[in-house]
Specification:
alpha+beta, nine-stranded antiparallel beta sheet, five-stranded parallel beta sheet, 30% helix
């Protein structure tokens, strides 16, 4: 393969913050980006061309393929069947493979695939009706009921601890589901992995702090043992070996109280827990995704410094026009970077941006975390 610049055009299904950061990373490589998104003036439209259309609109998808040299997606709502059709009809490569999307977009199929491959996962139970959920409660004691498709940031997930909660939980999920045994974990971890043309690379293991199942912070290096980080990396590479196609995958993990590592969920795209790589690693997850999808050589994944990423969430009671204030402190701090996603409307707990703080001292990770939290908590929606 010969790489030249100006380079090709990358078509992206989805134009949210991930599409925006993909386009920002693609530009220095000489790669243009066009996104497909149903929301006019989506976040990525500030830095890329946009086609306004639904993710399952054949005409809009055909236009995207006609304008691009390769296709990828930044949201699991992309239609794998339509992607396969476009790949054949337009003779265009799609990465990660639509087969990887089929495996991952349905949480039951995802867990079943990994379980059969011997990858460590929490025990789970298929739920089609109330009797299935009662059986899961009998077996596991308490479960997290998860919608098989469409859930993210805590949406579609309902804890169930007693038979009295079964009917309400099923109504809340509103469709096919799976019940997963609660895991007694010490911490949540993640690995951002990349499948290239002939190699697999991983970024250093991150530690994730969630509240209400929404990611608040990612801490790198993770505050755990070398043995656990080595096992997390090994498990992540095993996951990647069972997912076809090139690109970045976000792999969320549990570290149990016994020091075991279990796979929670996998995303076939750049992931919120990998945003730290923009300032904290030699190359970002977004640059790596562009390289991988195009079949270009991958970049280095080494950590530059200790890094904390803190999400800026919608601290409002109801939706309104987005105006963020209190930015003097983070913009004045050395080693702190602000990322604003360009969303016009702020909603309760909606991801609106993030702050990244870096340090030169590995031993100072606690104070770095406190610094990032203080700066993040000082911004406010006006």
């Amino acid at each position: 393969m010969t790489v030249t610049v100006p380079g090709p055009t990358l078509g992206v299904v989805g134009g949210g913050q991930l599409g925006r950061m993909l386009a920002e990373a693609a530009s220095p490589l000489g790669v243009d980006v066009v996104v497909l998104d149903p929301t006019p003036n989506c976040p990525a439209s500030r830095v890329a061309d946009q086609i306004v259309g639904a993710f399952d609109d054949p005409d809009a998808m055909a236009e995207l393929a006609a304008r691009a040299d390769a296709l990828t997606f930044e949201i699991e709502l992309a239609d794998p069947d339509l992607l396969d059709e476009l790949a054949a009809k337009e003779d265009i490569q799609v990465h990660p493979s639509p087969d990887a999307l089929r495996t991952i977009e349905d949480k039951l199929i995802q867990k079943d695939t990994f379980g059969k491959a011997g990858i460590p996962i929490p025990p789970f139970h298929r739920v089609d009706e109330a009797d299935d959920l009662h059986a899961a409660l009998d077996e596991f004691g308490a479960v997290m009921l998860k919608a098989r498709t469409g859930g993210y940031d805590g949406r579609g997930n309902v804890p169930v601890t007693s038979p009295d909660e079964v009917e309400d939980a099923l109504d809340a999920v509103g469709g096919p589901a799976m019940a997963e045994s609660f895991v007694e974990f010490e911490r949540e971890l993640s690995v951002i992995g990349i499948r290239g043309t002939d190699d697999i690379r991983t970024f250093p293991v991150g530690e994730n702090v969630h509240e209400d199942e929404i990611l608040y912070e990612t801490i790198v290096p993770a505050r755990t043992s070398d043995a656990v980080t080595e096992e997390a990396d090994r498990v992540a590479r095993e996951v990647l070996s069972h997912l076809p196609g090139r690109g970045v995958f976000g792999i969320e993990l549990f570290e149990t109280s016994d020091g075991d590592v279990l796979v929670n969920e996998v995303a076939p795209r750049p992931h919120n827990s990998g945003h730290w790589t923009i300032e904290g690693a030699l190359s970002s997850q977004f640059e790596q995704h562009v390289r991988a999808v195009l079949g270009w050589p991958l970049g280095a994944t080494d950590r530059r410094s200790p890094t904390v990423m803190a999400n800026i969430l919608g601290t409002v009671d109801s939706s309104r026009e987005a105006h963020l204030g209190g930015l003097d402190a983070p913009l004045s701090e050395s080693g702190v970077s602000l990322h604003w996603y360009g969303k016009d409307e702020v909603r309760p707990l909606r991801k609106m941006g993030h702050l990244t703080a870096v340090s030169e001292d590995d031993a100072d990770i606690e104070s770095l975390l406190e610094r990032a939290r203080t700066l993040r908590d000082g911004v406010e929606f006006q």
